[in-house]
Amino acid sequence: MRKLLYAGAVAISLLAAGCGGAGDEGASRVANDQLNESQTPEPSEYPSGTTPSATGYSASPTSPVQASPTGPARIDAAPTSLGSVLVGVDGRTVYLFTKDKGGASACTQACAAAWPPVLTAGAPQAGTGVHANLLGTLHREDGTTQVTYNKHPLYYYAKDQKAGDVLGQGLKDFGGEWYAVTPEGKKAKR
């Protein structure tokens, strides 16, 4: 319950900061009060370290959104309607974003809620059908470590519900296009 209150206070603070006006101080004070609580944190109410998203994309057991990874990410290749593509947590398809340049992620904030980055704690592991020499990492602005493949930062799509879903394939979103990634490190073709 405390985490829900905290998330609500942060959302209100962000909304107030974005809108401007006289209510900014009150919202910021509430968020700061929540941040400064020195009580022992409760265990997560969300499975596998998932958290709810303030943008409407649910972080449920069917969503791979991770507040913080608990170990090295494992990337595998699996068959889909697009052919063999890379997958991560629970066999979820991973995507590349054409707006990413120079091995850096251009997907933050609302973009990262809709397209959660594939995060890792430690060096990512190459699973079945994956070329270990193409795996890498980058450090995101928020301090987390994101998995890369063939120098492309990797993401999940929040609307994919189960293993094999490729609902993000070819979408134009957040100023670029999104494609599932082949084991060769290229865009999957439909």
Describe the fold and architecture:
The protein is of the alpha+beta class and 190 residues long. It has 3 helices and 9 strands, in the order ααβββαββββββ. It has helices at residues 2-19, 24-35, 110-114, and strands at residues 74-80, 83-87, 95-97, 125-126, 135-139, 145-149, 152-153, 172-173, 176-180. The strands form 3 sheets. The protein has a 3-stranded mixed β-sheet, with no helix packed on it. It has a 3-stranded antiparallel β-sheet with strand order 3-9-8, with no helix packed on it. The protein has a 3-stranded antiparallel β-sheet with strand order 5-6-7, with no helix packed on it. β6 (145-149) and β7 (152-153) form a beta hairpin. The longest helix has 18 residues, at 2-19. It is globular, with a radius of gyration of 18 Å.
Q: Report the principal-axis shape.
A: globular
Order of helices and strands: HHEEEHEEEEEE
In terms of quaternary structure, the protein is single chain
> Treating each run of at least 4 consecutive H or I residues as one helix, how many helices?
3
- How far apart the termini lie comes to 43 Å
> Roughly what fraction of the amino acids lie in strands?
15-25%
Q: Helical content, roughly?
A: 10-25%
How is the biggest beta sheet arranged?
3 strands, mixed
Going across the biggest sheet, name each strand in turn.
2-1-4
Structural class: alpha+beta
Mean pLDDT: 76
- Poorly predicted sequence stretches spanning 5 or more consecutive residues: 1-62
Number of E-state strands: 9
Please give the radius of gyration in angstroms. Answer: 18 Å
The count of domains is: 2
